[in-house]
Amino acid sequence: MLTKRIIPCFDVDGGRVVKGVSFVDLRDAGDPVALARAYDAGGADELVFLDITASHEGRESTYQMIAETADQVFIPLTVGGGVRTPGDMRRMLEHGADKVGVNTAAVERPALIEEGARRFGSQCIVVSIDAKQIPSAGGGPRWRVYTHGGRRETERDAIEWAREATERGAGELLVTSMDSDGHQSGYDLELLRQVAEVVEVPVIASGGAGEPEHLYLALTEGGAHAVLAASIFHFGHYDISTLKRYLADRGVAVRPAADGAPVAETEVPDARP
After folding, report:
1. Which residues have a Cβ under 8 Å from the Cβ of 192 and sit 6 or more positions away?
2. Catalytic residue positions?
3. Which of 13, 40, 200, 245, by CA, is between 20 and 30 Å from 260?
4. How confident is the model at residue 150 (pLDDT cuts 50, 70, 90)?
């Protein structure tokens, strides 16, 4: 049986981990290298590192920071932000990433997914989908894809884009509900369900984790293969060991985590006020 994964997410801006609500009102959460080291020791299954302003500001990700982070962890590391070409993907991988996340550039030029999958393998290509629900005249909810760190609305339907991205070679989808992000009131289960129904690759749930039950519901009712979370880890609400015990007690297959001090006790001294 494949185990479900718990993945802390680093939204990085200006060299610091930040976290907001619905992609705005960013709050400092600490140093990415220190956090990576603590999460690895605490039992995280993977890490996701997203330079959230790279595409908006038209610059490259901070490769040195990627290298320093990769040097501190022994679990898979996905890195995204400002990836526009297969050459950018190669640089990410050369600096220590195990997988490369693409969003804006893939929406603008979907062939990028195929190029990356052909050169580096589908297992390396993670397509991030930032989705916001839009009014629907009957027929159930619909979601629109946003790019540039949630700043630009597109005409793409999120479910159809999920299907196309996997057909083009994406090995995983990172699905973020912009409506739920940072609110800690639960993942958008309907969005996850609809994506999971139309693709055959792993779906990572993102946006809304606040309680252990939220992770459980995303992995069961939402059909996700992994859960991404930020606020509940960065600000010390829960440690990974506690969440893994909670899930295991409810019959969810997870990789055991070593018991240890909550990440917050390691990271708070490094965080800015």
Report:
1. 175, 203, 205, 218, 222, 223, 224
2. 11, 130
3. 13
4. confident
* Contacts for 16 with CB less than 8 Å, ≥ 6 apart: 28, 29, 30, 31, 32, 272
Q: State the greatest distance between any 2 C-alpha atoms of the chain, in Å, as a whole number.
A: 50
CB-based contact 85:265 (threshold 8 Å):
no
Torsion of CA 23, 230, 35, 43, to 10 degrees: -160
For residue 157, name the pLDDT band (cuts at 50, 70, 90): very high
pLDDT band at residue 171 under the 50/70/90 scheme: very high
Q: Which residues of 193-232 are buried (b: 16+ CB within 10 A; e: fewer)?
A: ebbbeebebbbbbbbbbbbbebbbbbbeebbbbbbbbbbb
Answer positive or negative: Cα dihedral of 101, 152, 181, 188. negative
> Phi-psi bin for 148: left (phi > 0), alpha (psi -120 to 50), beta?
left
Task: Render pLDDT for 56-106 as a digit per residue (tens, 0 to 9).
Answer: 444 555 688 888 888 889 999 999 888 899 999 999 999 999 999 999 999
